[in-house]
User: Fold this.
Amino acid sequence: MDRTGVGSPGTVDLNCDLGESFGAYVIGDDEALLALVSSANVACGFHGGDPRVMATTVARAAARGVAVGAHPGFLDLAGFGRRAIAASPDEVRTDVLYQLGALGAFCRAEGVPLRHVKAHGALYTLAVNDLAISTAIAAAVRAYDPGLRFFAPPGTALARAAGEAGLPLVREGFADRAYEPDGTLVARRSPGALVTDPATAADRMLRLVTEGVVRAADGTDVPLAVDTICTHADTPGAVAIVATVRARLEAAGIEIRPPDGAG
Amino acid sequence: MDRTGVGSPGTVDLNCDLGESFGAYVIGDDEALLALVSSANVACGFHGGDPRVMATTVARAAARGVAVGAHPGFLDLAGFGRRAIAASPDEVRTDVLYQLGALGAFCRAEGVPLRHVKAHGALYTLAVNDLAISTAIAAAVRAYDPGLRFFAPPGTALARAAGEAGLPLVREGFADRAYEPDGTLVARRSPGALVTDPATAADRMLRLVTEGVVRAADGTDVPLAVDTICTHADTPGAVAIVATVRARLEAAGIEIRPPDGAG
Amino acid sequence: MDRTGVGSPGTVDLNCDLGESFGAYVIGDDEALLALVSSANVACGFHGGDPRVMATTVARAAARGVAVGAHPGFLDLAGFGRRAIAASPDEVRTDVLYQLGALGAFCRAEGVPLRHVKAHGALYTLAVNDLAISTAIAAAVRAYDPGLRFFAPPGTALARAAGEAGLPLVREGFADRAYEPDGTLVARRSPGALVTDPATAADRMLRLVTEGVVRAADGTDVPLAVDTICTHADTPGAVAIVATVRARLEAAGIEIRPPDGAG
Amino acid sequence: MDRTGVGSPGTVDLNCDLGESFGAYVIGDDEALLALVSSANVACGFHGGDPRVMATTVARAAARGVAVGAHPGFLDLAGFGRRAIAASPDEVRTDVLYQLGALGAFCRAEGVPLRHVKAHGALYTLAVNDLAISTAIAAAVRAYDPGLRFFAPPGTALARAAGEAGLPLVREGFADRAYEPDGTLVARRSPGALVTDPATAADRMLRLVTEGVVRAADGTDVPLAVDTICTHADTPGAVAIVATVRARLEAAGIEIRPPDGAG
Assistant:
């Protein structure tokens, strides 16, 4: 059983993966997204990001008051961290610890706290169903800073590992993804997996935040409690989706802000 | 002018570069050297080292009470960090900051402080004569932790940058290297650049610590004040050199310990 | 069904993975092994090896008349290519093609042919049971040079893919590994997986070559037809194993030489 | 003294650096540029490009009849190959040989010849003035295929090394760069270094091709003989520059085609 998430009633967090550019390569519309989200998951150099990009992204987030989190992934720039690697739990633990420290240094230089952690890509997907991997991630987070908010979909191995490690859990939902009746995401390659219409996404997220329910792909309603809402930066129209979701939620009196919760 | 170093009278620090293995590749006799030195400069994954090696090295150093320092280098595993890269000062600053944070995370997980910083290979060599690069390194260190002891040869741009950044300077000498009459090292490729006889190295270092003088390659005596003595782990017979230097110094009543100095 | 292998009666090939050093890091006793084997599987820079090591290894093999083959692996120096990566068949095909070309350039510079291909580590293990991956490897080999001998254990997906691509198959057995009754290898982590006694390995390989039979872990005899015998360079005592296997085979009148077979 | 270049009267080659995307990262408008140039310098995975990008780029170039050349650079994805690395000549030679072979494999798979070689970024800039580095590059090219056309600015160490190695020289000029009175390029960071107006670039290149003269930054006319004209893909408005240069040259009866010249 998950611990209860650390979000506050009447509020929700909006998060996005940012800082994934690398060297001469630019990816994502970070400036536009930083103006809309309350939490930035910043790449740490393994699947994307480099020290210059990390410095710039942390500085931009700090300037806007956006909470900075680490977004550790597999060491696989060629695959953008989206390919599972058969790493051992100890390899995952040490790789995550390394990335937390690296990003934490830029936070320290910028004078802002590192607030949360969200695993990236294949590491996230793997961890959702694999308790050994989840536990390794949580162990790294706990060793680095037990107060770091830990982003995970509710009801998963990843959420369970956070609870067992005593980490503050931030339950995550997705604005741009369809759900199965059991509350899991429709697989990315299935038809209808993506929600790309901003109004539809906004309607769904408003209901999720205010009623605790999301409409699944089969038309049934699924109860789901979330503290943060992710939109993937590379979903077509990501900026419009986040902007519309934010406007709809604010119009309904929901405050957009990073999750609280002491460690 | 350098600030005075932070060593204490009657003491000297012995340092060595460690944790430079990578994945399946083992380099250096870390176990033997950790038993002999008081400060370990631990590679941070750019020129050598990986997260597993970093975790293990910090744990071993902690178990022996050896002070842990960061040993950041150029991102050049193929060249082991020994080839100068024409990086900008901002690239150097952010690369060093990244590496400090990464190693610092393993210190935090192990419950030991990160105590010092010593640049590696071509980055060190470049910085010794290049104030812009030295200043970039010092800026990274100051941003991460202004209490970190900063290793540099006395009288160099690197030492000056430490002073200007207000960092505690640890003046470094070399047990396994010959000196020019001006107090710089004989270039590595010149004949006689290396001192590999343990007894000779020990004699030289005892005189350096007790009299503040080292015999240069031309036979003249050079005044030199050092707080720490480096032996390169890949100098032939490194373990014997460090062991003999340590024994000779201890027999003369010199205490081997990490440099003090408040931040 | 496999095509018949390209070995000749009264002969067998001995192969070993070589050239896996990287930059300052040395691994394996390449000199000793090159004096004993007839085929060298040379790392191509993805899991091990670098351009200097490749140049040197090809030159040494050429000087000894040892046949040079490519040993492509996953792009994972940190894991030495031993961790499966969830790469698509097209990623595998293009990664292998890249590595074949890279090694082929050093063969061309040295004036020796590239003779064979053997996948490395997790890529090999994955391919043995995965026809899509095997087919991707075979497609790369066929596109580069359809005359390249393709090393694979008989009866596997890898051998089947070679046949379907029209590549000359070289059936591979292992001197340093125990076999299951079905002709597959005992899993590396199981007790008794390794055969490290040189005399035992030599006895087993003599019987394999002369009788086409190997004794399985459960004591039964397994029929097995092989054209080449691999000893892993990192098996404890690898040099002694290869030397003893070679001596035993030669004493029995078996000629050690690379497999023939037109493309 | 350079050998005479291999271009034919009444013709000129247009070249561009292409295939520099990497994994999820897209850079450059390759499709538009491939429709305009006669020679494509394809990145080989060290400073940009990956095996998928290389396969796609070679296939696209082949489909349009654009000559494929290798564009080897320093192993520095983080710096996009634009930072000099203090590599030894042997490191340069083997790094270039590796990259030639890797790209050559994709040409072989696509059934098109590898036609030329042009060094990238800092490697090119370094080689222009450093005969040891130039000689190392030329040695790699000669070892791989002495018929490869070798792109170099006339009168430089790079051109001289090509001549000494007996390689067919293709003398290169630049549409998007200003020239000094001595025929060298105005340094990239100097004001006025770039020519970004398409009409100006076209006028200059027409005069260069038809009169063998280019107007230098100080207003003097510099004699210059070129066989190929480069436009950098990352110069602002690169597509418009190449399109305008091509149209102007063709309107003047100049044929745009890859340089001839037997090895």
User: Anything to note?
Assistant: The two ends of chain A are 18 Å apart (CA to CA). The longest strand of chain A covers residues 11-18. Helices of chain A lie at 30-34, 51-64, 89-110, 121-129, 131-144, 157-164, 198-211, 238-251.
